[in-house]
Design a protein that fits this description.
Number of strands of chain A: 12
Shape of chain B: globular
Shape of chain A: elongated
Order of helices and strands of chain A: HHEEHHEHEEHEEHHEHEEHHHHHHHEEH
Radius of gyration of chain A: 30 Å
Oligomer: heterodimer
Distance between the termini of chain B: 83 Å
């Protein structure tokens, strides 16, 4: 059997006609209306409004839900009626204006919130912008809250999001490239980067991958992520998803590329390193040693969340002699009447925990609290009193869960918790040896992982001591003279002796 | 890539079925030995007393720890452990053993033979404390508890306490092994005696060992402290109480002075004759502060110096007596043989060291310095 080619032709997705072929407009109003209605399959939210200008009948067509009523009144209808002239270009105050004879362009325009103006007897028609830019108010993203710092979060409207970024980086070098992806949905994607800074090869690579997406629809950035990431089978997220403009800005300024999508407040950053998932914008807001300690705690939380249950299982099932004599009694006495092996105990607790977490997310706030109390307190106490799970295991699992939630990125926190399960199996079968092998495999994977041609585990592998200053710890900003080199920015310097005033003072 | 993923999935699912047929040793399936006592039974048998920890009800549910004391005789320590496993539920584990007590009688035999069981097992309790009991170890363990404290904890804490006060050398099973194989270095183990007045065991000095046998000589706690200071092995705290005689006596309880040693420095000076060692002088210099001197406030410097001089004299005397005892016991506690081997190798005759040591001229010179006399003047 020959492999390869045969499938690709058959699986070409169904083409939905968009503005691909042109269709010449009619001079007759009625015929144009008929054609547009037929293209929209007589949908009922399309509206036609008759106007008479210079005694000629005109017709405005628009999709009601997409059009801002205010704009329609003020920028199109009022000027047309008041001035009563067919010199449309000078009359209409709409911010975007186009004229065309291709009816299919009118159809696409309508789906994007344009108003189409047909004039009886003319083949030309006009596309006038009256897009309703309603979006929800800007609020702080609930899964990336900070104590100090910006409380701004992205919204579902891509233009407003781009506006936030433009406001933060007022620089002509900030470039935005739009892409249309999805045959049916025709979703707007945008990549944003600093032209003078970012590695040109990286832009090419990202553009190449985005343009090669051929799919029916894109509904969340997760779709894009899965289409363009390097290793789809890796348990680690290779793009950072954030809803915070300040976080995205910081990454853009390091020479990375941001990806925004219409209809989603979460944006993607690429390429990122492992440590980007452990950084929070807050780190730069507090004093540097506080920021450093918080980061160290987060890195410790990674190790806890990954290895604590397996370490405990390996210890109580194979190597109890490593426990100090005072501790072993406490652990042993809590284990004494538990009928299950430690692995099963841990699995029971982990599954209960995941269930609780999943249930609490789906429920509205006040009920979620009840679930927390019922789950955490009632089940926790009852399960120990019923001798199904030992006290120690509850402590271990609770610590693991808390550590995994300390990660500032939700995806990473889930990945780590899930990686804990194979480690638990290994340590329940082989003890410390299994655990060490499991951890080594994870480490090897981390070291070999690459995203968009940059090493994922940088600056630890390859080891760049100089860049550890802003990964595991955060040294004061004036010591971070160079950008991280993992993305190969076009120039490295990012700080030019800002504290030189100190020296001048003494002169 | 795909193949490795398939393989790893198959691998990890098969792992699930392998669990528990592996060499697991579940903590909850084990019985912990917390202390063991070894006694001489007859020419071919040993009696081992085990203190096994009971954990019926979890402590979180109001249970208390208790020991079960079992005594078994057999042809070797391993034999007794196998026998005790027969009378106990679950599997006996000695890896957390905290205490090994040796009866006086058995300590005079070769303890290497007794401890062999511990040295071969990789999970053996090499950090357990060892003590020699005046009488039988079995009787000591049968006390079960002293006050609220279980005997095993009580004993190991008793020994650790003595180590902190520089009254016993810090000896574990592992160290005992090392020293018993070393020709140029001997050791001592804490000597425990049942104090009838108090109704509890007490540390009654140190039992001197030569190679792997107890010599029968026991040094009282005070001499033990001085010996340890000479061996440069001061622990956290060391106090010396010395009777400084009639001329200081000015009333009730005024004959003594107590000094707390802050630091001690010991140096051994060797002299040689015709390629053989002829004399070893131990220079011990201790600095301490006066912890107790009831008769005077010690305003004057000269007075303090007088006390220091007198103390030096008394301690030198005690030191010399102590060294004689060491030589009688043939216990090279100070590691003179090892020093010779390392620094004066031409004078080192390992095969004759046993005889040479007893005949050696050893002298102690103790110098006391007093740095402080207390907070109120």
């Amino acid at each position: 059997m020959r492999r390869g080619k045969r499938k690709s032709i058959r699986n070409e997705p169904y083409q939905i006609p968009t503005a691909t072929e042109s269709y010449e407009a009619f001079p007759s109003l009625e015929k144009n209306k008929e054609y547009i209605l037929s293209q929209f399959h007589n949908t009922e939210d399309i509206k036609f409004r008759k106007l008479t200008i210079e005694n000629i009948t005109c017709k405005l067509a628009y999709l009601d839900p997409l059009v801002d009523e205010d704009k329609l009144q003020k920028t199109i209808m009022k000027p047309l009626m008041e001035k009563n002239t067919l010199n449309i270009e000078d009359t209409v105050t709409s911010k975007e204006y186009r004229s065309s004879v291709d009816l299919n362009e009118a159809v696409t325009g309508l789906t994007k919130g344009f108003v189409v103006l047909f004039i009886e007897g003319h083949q030309h028609f006009y596309l006038l912008e009256a897009f309703s830019a309603n979006s929800r108010a800007v609020s702080e993203p609930i899964n990336e809250q900070v104590v100090r710092g910006s409380h701004e979060g992205f919204v579902e409207n891509i233009m407003q999001n781009l506006q936030m970024l433009r406001r933060r980086i007022e620089n002509p070098n900030l470039v935005i490239r739009f892409f249309k992806v999805g045959k049916t949905t025709d979703t707007k994607l945008a990549i944003i980067y600093l032209q003078h800074l970012v590695n040109p090869e990286l832009i090419d690579e990202v553009e190449k991958r985005i343009t090669s997406i051929k799919t029916d629809s894109i509904q969340t950035p997760g779709y894009v992520e899965e289409f363009i990431e390097d290793s789809p089978f890796s348990p680690f997220p290779q793009m950072l998803s954030t809803e915070r403009p300040d976080r995205l800005t910081a990454h853009i300024i390091e020479g990375r590329i941001g990806l925004l999508m219409e209809g989603s407040p979460s944006t993607l950053v690429m390429p990122v390193t492992f440590f980007a998932f452990y950084q929070s914008p807050e780190d730069y807001n507090s004093r540097w040693y506080i920021g450093s300690i918080l980061r160290l705690i987060r890195v410790a939380s990674f190790i806890f969340a990954l290895g604590l249950p397996s370490l405990y299982i390996a210890t109580v099932s194979f190597h109890s002699e490593v426990l100090p004599a005072e501790l072993i009694l406490n652990i042993k006495s809590s284990l004494e009447n538990v009928p299950f092996p430690p692995l099963l105990e841990a699995l029971i607790m982990q599954i209960i925990l995941e269930l609780l977490r999943e249930a609490a997310i789906r429920l509205p706030g006040p009920i979620a609290q009840t679930i927390g109390i019922v789950g955490g307190l009632v089940i926790g106490t009852a399960i120990v009193e019923a001798n199904l799970v030992s006290n120690m295991m509850i402590i271990v699992v609770a610590l693991t869960a808390i550590s995994s939630f300390a990660v500032p990125s939700y995806e990473m926190s889930m990945s780590i918790r899930l990686l804990g399960f194979p480690l638990m199996l290994l340590s329940a079968s082989f003890g410390f040896i299994g655990l060490v092998f499991g951890l080594s495999i994870i480490l090897i994977h981390l070291c070999s992982l690459e995203t968009f041609g940059t090493p994922y585990f940088s600056p630890l592998a390859p080891l760049r001591l100089n860049e550890l200053k802003d990964s595991i710890v955060r040294l004061p900003r004036w010591l971070l003279g160079d950008r991280p080199t993992d993305v190969h920015p076009q120039f490295n310097k990012q700080e030019w002796r800002s504290r030189r005033w100190k020296k001048n003072e003494n002169d | 890539m795909k193949k490795t993923w398939h393989l790893s999935i198959i691998f990890s699912t098969t792992l699930l079925f392998l669990t528990s047929c592996w060499d697991q040793e579940l903590l909850k399936e084990s019985k912990l030995i917390y202390g063991a006592g070894l006694d001489y039974e007859n020419e071919n048998e040993i009696r081992t007393t085990f203190a096994v920890r009971n954990l019926g009800i979890p402590v979180s549910q109001g249970g208390v720890y208790s020991n079960r004391i079992l005594s078994v005789s057999g042809s070797s320590p391993r034999d007794t452990r196998i026998k005790v496993d027969r009378v106990l539920s679950k599997q006996v584990t000695a890896s957390k053993n905290q205490l090994i007590l040796l009866g006086k009688e058995i300590a005079r035999k070769d303890i290497d033979h007794i401890f062999d069981v511990l040295y071969r097992d990789p999970k053996g309790p090499l950090d357990a404390r060892v003590g020699v009991v005046d009488g039988r170890a079995e009787d000591m363990l049968n006390l079960d508890h002293i006050g609220d404290t279980l005997i095993t904890e009580f004993m190991s804490d008793l020994i650790k306490g003595a180590e902190n006060k520089t009254e016993a050398p810090p000896m574990t099973i592992e160290k005992t092994f090392r020293y018993s194989k070393d020709v140029g270095q001997d050791y001592a183990l804490p000597y425990i005696r049942f104090n009838e007045d108090v109704g509890a065991p007490e540390i009654n000095g140190i039992a001197l060992f030569h190679q792997s046998n107890f010599t029968g000589v026991v040094l009282p706690p005070f001499d033990a402290t001085l010996l340890l200071l000479m061996a440069d092995a001061k622990s956290k705290k060391a106090s010396i109480v010395e009777n400084i005689g009639k001329e200081h006596d000015q009333g009730f309880l005024t004959q003594t002075v107590t000094i707390n040693i802050q630091n001690a420095k010991s140096d051994i000076e060797y002299s040689f004759q015709e390629g053989n060692i002829s004399k070893a002088v131990i220079h011990l210099e201790v600095r301490g502060n006066i912890e107790e001197y009831p008769q005077n406030h010690l305003f004057k410097e000269s007075q303090v110096e007088n006390i220091a001089d007198e103390l030096s004299k008394k301690l030198t005397e005690r030191g010399n007596n102590l060294l004689t005892k060491l030589q009688e016991a043939n216990c090279d506690f100070l590691g003179i043989g090892r020093d010779l081997n390392a620094y004066h190798h031409e004078a080192w005759h390992p095969k004759q060291w046993d005889k040479e040591f007893t005949k050696l001229n050893i002298e102690a010179k103790v110098k006391v310095k007093i740095s402080e006399t207390g907070i109120i003047k």
